[in-house]
Amino acid sequence: MCKYELKGFKDFLKEDEGMGTVEIILIIVVLIGLVIIFKNQLRALVESVFEKITSDSNTVMS
Fold this sequence. Notes:
Elements: H1 3-14, H2 21-37, H3 39-61
């Protein structure tokens, strides 16, 4: 590697720009879209987890 390439790499590592508002909004939109698409599967998963928790807690309390 020549020293110019190494300098560019060091500058890249030192870059500290944060995420902008647009990127955050896009991430939120994608997450909301995934929740909408998989709503039924997520609901079924959460219900089964809570049923398992409830049944296990009943055995502990007995």
